[in-house]
Amino acid sequence: MHAFSYKNGQLHCEDVALQGLADTYGTPTYVYSANTILDHFRRLHLALGDLDHEIAFAVKANSNLSVLRILADEGAGFDIVSGGELFRVIKAGGNPQQCTFAGVGKTREEIIYALQHQIYSFNVESESELRYLNEVAGELGVIAPAAVRVNPNIDAKTHKYISTGKSENKFGIDFEAIIDLYDRASRELPNIRLRGLQMHIGSQLTSVKPFMEAVEKVKPLALALKEKHNIEFWSIGGGIGIVYHDSLASGAVSWWDGQDAESKPLTIEEYGAAVVPLLQDVGLKILLEPGRYIVGNAGVLLTKCLYEKKGSAKTFKIVDAGMNDLIRPALYEGHHEIAPLQEHKGDLVKADVVGPICESGDFFCQDREMPDFQPGESIALLSAGAYGFVMASNYNSRPLPAEILVDGATHRVVRKRQTLEDIIAGE
Ligand code: LLP
Q1: Could you give the CA distance from residue 315 to residue 426 in angstroms, rounded to a whole number?
Q2: Which of 115, 202, 249, 353 counts the highest number of beta carbons within 10 A?
Q3: For the segment 273-304, what is each residue's pLDDT rounded down to a tens digit?
């Protein structure tokens, strides 16, 4: 369950009124609920029951040190995609030996850094990367643990920019080519230890079917690699979708959106019940790499309405957050619910909520029915805890927003708002 709700007409995160945070720290500001993050992590663990598993949080979804520390303290592993993310995990007290390193373009410096910290596995995406990893490990006189990412050619039925498991995507290696590659690698690459197999078919999946299809398709391959190459783990990736629509009313953060005909609202428990039986007899450690599921509904972006403009065609509510602060609507047609910090009981109006950036794509919603909040009032853009702050930029020379972590009735600033001096430092 997420921890955002109205109490006495005021939107709260856990026991903290968001209006107070907006007044004290200004806007735009990200606010996260520590207990929601914990709840999601623990519920996924429980849903996997006695399956031999490890949850490696996908750091790319939210890499704030204080968020990582919550998960590190719970014993989580981490799925990283850069040297920078490994640096953050270490700073947050995470264990590098529980880290998997994904991504198609790891650099020499990143490989060396990760080898020095003895990460659990490099999840390799091409033969040339595997050969290069072997070379660098040889130079250092170490053995590099590796898993190859298989592309199972399964349609994840999600937005095309976050679908990764089809042959036309740049990710992974064709299913049919994997066995040969492991055979060759074991003969020719002495500095590689083939430790596992990895896959990830896409993000924000709203149906359990593609997950099951992928697991069923890849399972014989995983078993063959265990038999032949003695691999010890199989990562089934991340991608568990969350509710973006009506997320406040339902409070059901670990339910998936029922947006297409294929999907039905599903709890994380149902996800577990669907995949665990398929994985139980594999005899490999199962890794999961969820990002959005853990943090997506644990965060909101607070923003203040500056102006209202009623044109002949539309009403625009202009707020102080822009696409540089939260790019998901512009980039993926992402939907984020709008909730005024002071509850509105009256009629709804149809409006666009737009930011101050000089681009037509700078909107949070278009032609949506919403409470008629006015200039001076602040609102929360919900479900912004994943791929929110991490994708923010200084476009238009706008400082990065502050980040606040709420825990019960307490809160602390876990990242200060950038200053204008911060922005030009280094120029
Ligand atoms: N593992 C791998 C190899 C991935 O590429 C990703 C996400 C994950 C795990 C975590 O996926 P999740 O559980 O969060 O769905 N910025 C986009 C999402 C990009 C996802 C990229 N890869 C968005 O805002 O929707």
Answers
A1: 41
A2: 202
A3: 999 999 999 999 999 999 999 999 999 999 99
Residue 125 near ligand 1, beta carbon < 6 Å = no
d(CA 301, CA 142): 45
If one residue of 44, 57, 60 were mutated to test the ligand 1 pocket, choosing by the most ligand atoms within 8 A of its CB, it would be: 60
Query: Which of 272, 295, 318 is the last residue in one of the domains?
Result: 295
Give the number of domains in the chain. Answer: 2
> Mind giving me the DSSP string for 309-327?
EE-SS-EEEEES--TTT--
pTM above 0.70, yes or no: yes
As given in the structure block, the two tokens for residue 39 are 């709840």
What CATH number is given to the structural domain containing 216? 3.20.20.10
Nearest to 119 by CA among 29, 63, 196: 196
Q: What are phi and psi of 12, to 5 degrees?
A: -115, 150
For ligand 1, atom 16: residue with the closest CA: 387
- 93-118 confidence digits (pLDDT tens): 999 999 999 999 999 999 999 999 99
Q: How confident is the model at residue 256 (pLDDT cuts 50, 70, 90)?
A: very low
H or E stretch including 48?
A: none
pLDDT at 338 over 50: yes
H or E element that contains 171: none
Residue 19 inside a domain? The answer is no
